[in-house]
Amino acid sequence: MAVEVTALEPSSLALFWAGVIALSIMVYVILDGFDLGVGILFGAAKAGPLREGMIAAIAPFWDGNETWLVVVGASLFAAFPVVYAVFLPAFYLPVLLLLLGLIFRGVAFEFRHRGSAGGLWNWGFFLGSTVVAFVQGAAVGAMIRGIHVVDNQYAGGSFEWLRPFPVVCGIGLVLGYALLGAGWLVLKSEGALLDWAWRRIPWLAGAVLLVLCVAFFVALGDRDRIGGMLHGRTWGLIFPLIGLVAMEGVFASIPLRREAWPFVCTALFFAAAFATLAVMFWPYMIPYEITIGGAAAPEASLSFLFWGAGLFAMPVIVIYTVAVYWLFRGKLRPMERYESSAEAGRSEF
Q: What is the architecture, at CATH level 2, of domain 28-301?
């Protein structure tokens, strides 16, 4: 049951930091989502030029993308300490697996060409990416079901995030990130890798839609906890409709060979899904127990954070991100080395 503090109205600064966190999550999901997706697809590619092309497509971006995850964690800790205190006990194991997966990805990225253990690190890169995507999706699914809070403390079990609905959400996010990664490879690559990525897109898009249908039917079995979240907000249904239109754009891009469409449409699909979650969760930071106002830090702390981080750190991160993507815009070179793997690429799938 929600405690009395959750009835507090949020201040302007609390709403500002809630917006910063929401925007940072969405940016992280799209930017780190595509390089996690490439890591997931990495396990399906044959060793050699195809895999080297995948690494080249994300090499300038992957470490900077994860900065947005740091922004989310730091902002939650400073601006909404109650959320931080409830979230970590609820998701100790997913957070631990997330950190291990990110560590394996980073180490594998640097060590896969060192010594005789390259094959092990290649698998580490794939498994780390998959685990990170799965636990993120499972955590979102658990949040949709609701977090049991008593006196501003988590009161549920350690494996609530492994219920059927969160597991389906975890699988869905793995496939969604893989689709986003395939779209990125189409956008950035040429030759055999480009053809390889194009062939994966219809399968991945179809799998994402299938998992969405499964999630819907699983949610029906949990309707006491999930049902009615859009009650009184039927206007929010526009966002799922936008997501379906975006997915149709992914399918439409295949015969037309519009190279920007798969990535842009998949990113729009993720943005629509995020907007749907925002409508479902509002005004809660911990669904469906603690609101933004109830979770916010004291006003003096929010003000200090605004002047220290909001006006200085955030613009630097945004400028850095924009500069990197502008500097490495267009197709990545050299791509000629992938041509030698054309036959290998055609023989797969």
A: Up-down Bundle (1.20)
